[in-house]
Amino acid sequence: MLGIELADAAFLPAATVALLAGILSFLSPCVLPIVPPYLAYMTGVGVGGLKSGERSAVVPALFFVLGLSTVFLLMGMAASAFGRLFLQYQDWLARGSGIVIVVMGLHFLRVIRIPFLDNEARVDAGDKGGTSFGAYVLGLAFAFGWTPCIGPQLGMILSLAATGAEAGRGAALLAVYALGLGIPFLLSAIFINRAMGLMNRIKPHLKLIERVMGALLIAVGIALVTGAFPTFAYWLLETFPWLARLG
Questions:
Q1: At what angle do helices 206-226 and 228-239 cross, to 10 degrees?
Q2: Pick from 15, 17, 41, 38: nearest CA to 146
Q3: Any residues with CB less than 8 A from the CB of 151 and at least 6 apart, and which?
Q4: Per-residue three-class SS string for 35-60
Q5: Distance (Å, rounded) from C-alpha 223 to C-alpha 229?
Q6: What is the pLDDT of residues 24-59, one digit of tens each?
Q7: Which helix (H) or strand (E) holds 243?
Q8: Where in this chain does the record put each Cytochrome C biogenesis protein transmembrane domain (predicted)?
Q9: What is the full DSSP assignment across 101-138?
Q10: Can you give the pTM of this predicted structure?
């Protein structure tokens, strides 16, 4: 019973990290600037057409988020399967993943530079702008094509997913990550004019956002190396006993 309770509690800090990582991924220097042109492409109008309300970007944005969520959920299930396959080596898997994540965090803090993380392996979604299906395909392409850009954040969540033996843990964590990345995208489509103004105000602070992401990666990496997530889970159970009833 204790194992089930611990798994329930351990999921909460991991899910919080996943949500924050998704939001920071949206605000990252290689995602935030392309949001307006992506919305314009998906709706089949120019950026000026979006601002004038010529056509709504909400439905295409929804299908875009569904597309990227499809890929992330599949990745999450694969990570859980991988974790179960190497269940007896999960301690070593967690430590190894933690070291890699710390190195990626140092890249974001510009302590070291990893060249391939500065590139974007973009996938061409074809000439399908202006349709819901095209937006869905673009979401699939985004999830695959921006892997070098959002790879450190995504790798962090996949590492957390692989350290749990529960079948649905990976899918759930990646679903939370997709929410963190997708909800701001949907809000940008709904409130397009306000969103563009807010994006312009955020752009001067992109380097700071990148450093925050680096600090989060390092913190999670250290937690994986030291086994702090289970320790934190025990603390949650002791502090909030009602969490034991979640499972």
A1: 90
A2: 38
A3: 104, 117
A4: HHHHHHHHHCCCHHHHHCCCCCCHHH
A5: 6
A6: 888 888 788 888 888 887 877 666 666 666 677 888
A7: none
A8: 16-225
A9: HHHHHHHHTTSS--GGGG--------S-TTSHHHHHHH
A10: 0.78
